[in-house]
Each structure stands twice: as structure tokens, then as C-alpha cells.
Amino acid sequence: MTKAGGPGGSVPLGPEGLSPAGAEPGPSGSAASAAPPGRRTGNAFLLAQLGAHAAARFAERIAALSLTPAQAGLLRLVTWEPGQSQQALARQLGTPPSRLVPLVDGLQERGLIERRRNPDDRRHHALFLTEAGGRFMRELGQAGQAHEADLMTGLTAPEQAVLHDLLARVAETQGLITGVHPGYRSGGGDDPGGRGPQE
Q1: Dihedrals φ, ψ of 84, to 5°?
Q2: How far apart are CA 147 and CA 140, in angstroms?
Q3: Residue 190: pLDDT over 90
Q4: 33 compared with 148, residue with greater pLDDT
Q5: Where would I find the beta strands (DSSP E) of 6-69?
Q6: Which domain range does residue 91 map to?
Q7: In this predicted structure, what is the pLDDT of residue 90?
Q8: Max alpha carbon distance in the chain (Å)?
Q9: Partner residues linked to 116 by β-bridges
Q10: Cβ atoms within 10 A of the Cβ of 58, count?
Q11: Are 90 and 125 in contact (CB under 8 A)?
Q12: Host H or E run for residue 126
């Protein structure tokens, strides 16, 4: 157990950066006041807690569309930059191309994306949304907006903008790629990282 200095000497700290036992809660209405005395967590723990919660809720929401988070993330990348090869997408996601094949196959079978011969390199196929895929992305976008609104309940629009800027700075500092969930790198089949990307 770690120690923290204070006016009366060192006091024990709990796991995950918890506050010393008996610590006073923060001012009424502050984030600190939401946690019981002695259970104030650090920012890293809160980010992990909210990330797991958000991923689970998103997975539940898009299950109604018969979609996994991993498939949703792949569709988003194809929408953002159509015409990429599977190999290029795999490099961007940091995952072996062999892991991407079943994701692409599943989406192609549903008629949401299509493989076309790459005119610059006929050894590779380029990925594009189909017309049905474009319509489906509008549905997925609506699900993503509802997910965002649900998670941001309790924050004003200016507060949400500030939170987004702060989180973007943290993500950039940690070397994370915009729109790419790190779960793709960790294995786990069709749903990388256990949950995969979210909107």
C-alpha cells in the first residue's frame, strides 16, 4: 500500500489511486462529491471505468442492427476513406490482415461493402461501401448519436466541448490514432479487445 504526505505525516492510500481513508468529500455538486469518503478515484481509473461502460452500452445498442463494435469500426474507416486495401486498413488498425478477412467477409455477405480490384495494384482489393452500406451507415450514425447523448446526460454543450478537447489531448499524448480502437491490436477474434471500437 502506498503512502501520501500530509500535514500530519504519511497516510495510507488504497488501490487505483484512492484517497486516504477518512478523506473529506469535495464541495457539493463537484465530481468528488459523487464518491463516498475514502473512495475518490484517479483520472486513469475513471477513464477506464467509463470506457468499459461506454463500450458495453454501445455493443448492446448496435446489437439491434446485428453488428459488432469491430464491424462498426471497420465500416467507419471505409466510410471515411473509401478505396483502401485490406492490407492498408490492417496496418492502420494495427492488426494482422488475416484477422480482418472475416470482418470484411461478413460485411460483404450482408451487402454493406464490396471488394473491387485496385487499379494501381491488381494483387489487392479496394474496399468501398455499397449503396445499401451508405443507408446502413445513416442508421449506425443515428445509433452513435443516441449513444453519445445518453453518455453525456448531465453535461451542458459547452462542458461537452471542453471534455472532448481534453480527452483528445490525452489521446494524442498517448499516441492513439483518431477513430481507431486499440482493441484491434490485442486479438480476440471478431470483437477485438473484448469490445472493439465504439462511435
Answers
A1: -75, 150
A2: 10
A3: no
A4: 148
A5: 11-12
A6: 67-176+183-199
A7: 86
A8: 72
A9: 126
A10: 23
A11: no
A12: strand 125-129
Lowest mean pLDDT among 11-15, 144-148, 154-158: 11-15
Structural domain contains residue 47: no
Half-sphere exposure in the Cβ direction for 104 (13 Å, CA): 20
3-state secondary structure of 67: coil
Q: What pLDDT is recorded for position 97?
A: 83
Per the domain annotation, does 52 fall within a domain? no
| CA–CA distance, 135 with 139 (Å, rounded to integer) | 7
The domain spanning residue 76 has which CATH number?
A: 1.10.10.10
Number of domains comprising the chain: 1
The residue length of the chain stands at: 199
Q: Where are the alpha helices (DSSP H) in 110-156?
A: 131-151
Residues 6+ apart with CB under 8 A from 13: 1, 2, 3, 4, 19, 20
71-121, pLDDT tens digit by residue? Answer: 998 999 999 989 988 888 888 887 888 888 898 999 999 999 999 887 666
Amino acid identity, position 136: F
Half-sphere exposure of 14 (CA within 13 A, CB side): 13
Domain assignment present for residue 158? The answer is: yes
Q: Fill in the DSSP letter of residue 14.
A: -
First to last CA, the chain: 38
What is the identity of the amino acid at 86? Q
Q: Say yes or no to pLDDT of 7 above 60.
A: no
Cell for 19?
484517497
Q: Are strands 125-129 and 84-85 parallel, antiparallel or unpaired?
A: antiparallel
Question: Helix and strand tally (H, E) in the chain?
Answer: 6, 5
Would residue 36 count as lying in a domain?
Answer: no
